[in-house]
Amino acid sequence: MTVHSTTDQTLIELTGRLIERRSVSPDDAGCQDILYAALAPLGFQRVQYDFADVKNLWAVKEGNEPGPTLIFAGHTDVVPSGPTDAWSYDPFTLTVVQDVIYGRGAADMKGALAAMMLAAERFVADHPDFKGRLGFLITSDEEAKATHGTKLAIQALKDQGAAIDFAIVGEPSSSEVLGDTIRVGRRGSLNGTLTVKGQQGHVAYPETVINPIHLAAIAIEKLLATPLDQGHGAFPPSTLQVTNIRAGTGATNVVPGDCCVEFNFRFNTAWNASSLKDWTETRLDTVLDKYDLQWTLSGDPFLTNEGELLSVVDDAIQSACGITPIHSTGGGTSDGRFLAPHDIDVVEVGVTNGTIHKVDERVAVSELRGLCDIYYQIMQTLLAPK
Fold this sequence. Notes:
Blueprint: H1 6-19, H2 31-39, E1 45-48, E2 56-62, E3 65-75, E4 95-97, E5 100-102, H3 106-126, E6 131-139, H4 150-159, E7 166-169, E8 181-183, E9 185-186, E10 188-197, E11 201-202, H5 212-224, E12 239-247, E13 254-255, E14 258-267, H6 273-284, E15 291-299, E16 302-303, H7 308-321, E17 326-328, H8 336-339, E18 345-348, E19 362-364, H9 365-383
Parallel strand pairs: 3-6, 3-7, 7-18, 8-17
Antiparallel strand pairs: 1-2, 2-6, 4-5, 5-19, 9-16, 10-14, 10-15, 11-13, 12-14
Helix pairs in contact: 1-3, 1-9, 3-9, 7-9
């Protein structure tokens, strides 16, 4: 039988309590109450910024003297488990095998939330006279629409005059081992929905129809013919991916009247939403006569430049893990895109991401212990009195 330290046991128990809540996005399922129960005895004050069916927890503790405001941001919602019989263990029951925690959300990101709570407990105990403010902004709307979560909560905080200097987002940023990679920025995300207009009719009379699927294929080829760029500054190349194509009546002898093509841009700082829209429409106009185009911007690109926060995070990881992290802007979007526009330095620091959103999602207890140490050292360096 494995004998765990008190810290390890607490991390396992708190992560397990969160995993056992079926908080499929946007349902919090009581997770934020569990988190605040850990923060309340430390003197944190709670405000809920709830919108629609989304819960957003803001918990903050004031220090004893002026200083910066450091927040830790994360989410309690998870993606669906998929068929449970594909899992080795129940995805919503705490299972620990050879010091590895299994369950939906173990890595993304309920384990990180548990590490945040323990780091805060240790920090407040060691530094009851800390400076500045320490806060937690936790949403239940990150994995799905992300429309009523951090985006609205941070705006509400700013509208009330909250000044936030630094944010650590607990997304699983690491690749192979804890601390090998941190996210210092993210590309923007722009979704387009193209509806190509045709003329419905019988397949046996092609002279009487205009096939929108054929036209859509030409349009897609046109959009994909030229790379957007070769990268820009700290960012990898911008990309365009077609994600869905819908057409047809279900019959095999009918040419449909329209075809819908959905696509996504992941774009770096060489572009913005307006320039991408112009780029797209200029190309479509050369091959299509009738089409409709709708846009949804998920977030602009952001980058945290070299400075105090990055230096502190690098030092914390070097101390806890013995490595210097890669500064990456790759990967998907995160709620950092909602924090950065408010003049907040944002860095994503979390566990390895090899099993996130997969069957048998899992995280090693040793990773959570190390992550707790990293978070503690960030708190200590930025907020402990000199």
